Structures are given as structure tokens and as C-alpha cells.
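# step 3/5: fold
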Amino acid sequence: MPFKFSLISTHPSGIRRARLHLPHQTVETPVFMPVGTQGTVKAVPQSILEELGPDGAQIILGNTYHLYLRPGHELIASLGGLHKFISWPRALLTDSGGFQVFSLSKLRKLTEEGVRFRSHLDGSSHMFSPEHSMNVQIALGADICMAFDECTEYPADEARAAQSLYYTMLWAARSLKHFRENQHKVPWHGDPNLTNAINDDGSPASQSLFGIVQGGMHMHLRRESAERLVEMDFDGYAIGGLSVGEPRELTREVIAEVIPLLPPDKPRYVMGVGFPDEIVEYARMGVDMMDCVIPTRAARHGLLFTSEGRVNIKNRQFANDPNPLDPNCTCPTCSRYSRAYLRHLAQTTEPLGGTLNSIHNLHFYLTTMANLRAELEN
């Protein structure tokens, strides 16, 4: 048994309050998951991540493609898995590597077997198949793994989207088969020190595998993908291929089309979204889990999200401003530093500026979701 999903309440509008009992953490949803691509949420120490927002970061992401290339999944497995390697005691989710391979469009070749590509680091040749992606993710030891898929670019005509969906569905079935046959090899399997890793019947809990709905912006392909994945009976379901350049209205339309097709008793995850108002909107549509690099990427460029709206800290108007970035925020950045200092760090490109900005943005995202959960409980 991979995990237990407890649906606490569902509002008539679609938003729901649930709980994911994962081996390393019980995750309260709806939840935002910070992205830790290469074993780190950029510029923010793990100890601080645990303290941000009312609950801290409950679950973060790791990137299968990047960790496979550096330092290598076999090395990480030999050191006890990704949790121990990065000193992160809470839940982890790894993506399949499909999106990164998608971004290497000029360096890849697709076949039914998988994707052959050249490393962006040194040009070396590699092959990612569904089975290989599962082996890497099992070795990394994340609580939740993702089926190997092909992310469809935008725009993509119906023929191209259908071809991409063909690969994704073929690979989904192979991912699931290989995962179920090998998931007992996870580095922490049966660890008695993981209290969450024991099922109600006393058996050791294991990793979970989510299928990914693709199909571009063609609704009949999205429906086909969702229905076929549900038949395969994954542990949870993600909606991929969004935030790839399409208008927000299309993003919303795809989510609205797919959500009713997914089982109500399993978690729903929209990948790669979004701005603060977007994650609230999608949660209200019935999405349980979301992730995005925006909080840290925007922070490194001086874009900050506050209770009073967006702030570009590089603006000259903040040069002499002694006030905290957000007067309504309790994060370490707002509790200690002024807007003038944050602008100074941005102007001088000091690394601390990116760290303090990222701490604030992540706190804002995590607090936004915590407030939404509290609203549902009240």
C-alpha cells in the first residue's frame, strides 16, 4: 500500500480539504510544493523551509533528469536516498524527467522505446525510457514518483498532440508495470524509524506513482488521456503540459475539463503552476497539489508577492524606504529587513538578496495555501 488519501470535506464549488499520509510526512491539502530541482530549493536552507508559513514546506520536489546527471541516482541511493542526501525529513516528489527532455527539443530523438538525448552539461548521450525513469526515481526514494511522459509543447496541432499522447499513454502503462515490480527497492523501504511508513495492517508503506494527463489543448485528447489513465489505476493523477506558453484561459479550461474525470478518492496534482492568485483559483476548482519555480525565480529577479500586491524591489522608490517589505507578513525577511536594504542587495547583486527574497515569496505561497485550508475548516 503506497499511502492513504483521506478526503475530509468537499465544497459544492469543487474545492476540497484532504490529507495525504505519505511515508515521510502527512501532507495537508490543498498544498503548494516548492521546487528543489537539484536537491535544493534555490538559495533557501532546508531548516528555513521547515519554518516558513504556519506549517512549513510539507513537501518539496526533486528533478529526476538533473539528479540523474549530477551527482547520479546510484550515488544518492548508496547514501540512503534523496531524503538523507539533502537532509530533508519531510515528503519528496520527483518528476519523471519528461519535461526536461521536452525542453531539449534540439538535442533529443523520440521512439516508442523512449527518448535519446544529449546532456546539456557535456553533450554525452543518454537514453530515458519509462523503465529507466522508474529505476532512477525508485533509487532517489521520493515519496511520490511520476510516470514518464512527453510534455506537449504549445502551440501543437491535433496531429502533433495525438502523437505526443500516443507516447505518453504507452509509457504510462510501462511505467506502472515496472514501478510495481520494483518499488520494494526504494532505499528506505521498511525503515522502522519512519512512523508514517507503516500501513494500518503493519506492512511497510512504499512509494506512490502518479499518472500524467496530456493531450495539449485539445479537449477530446485530454479526456481520452484521463479516462485511460484512470483505467490503469494509478495512485494519483497529475495534469501536465500546462504553463508552456498558453493563455491562462486555456489553462483553466483544461483543468475544468479534466478534474471531473479523475477519481474523487485520489489526489489531483496540476504541474508547474502558477502565480499566487492562480494557485488559489485552481485549488477552488478541486486541485489538491501544485508546484512552481515562480516564487524563487521571481525572487532572484526582484519580483516579490505581498498582501498589498506585487513589488519590484529594484524600483528607485524603495531606496530610502525603512519599512518592511510587507507589513502584514511574519516571515524572517519582513521581520528583520527594510525595503531599502532589500533594494540595496538587488542593486549590488549580493546573493543574500536572492535568499531573503525567496524566503519571503515562499512564505507568502505557503501561507496562502494554509489560509485556504483554514478557511475550509472554518
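# step 4/5: annotate
Residues 293-378 form one domain.
# step 5/5: archive (pending)
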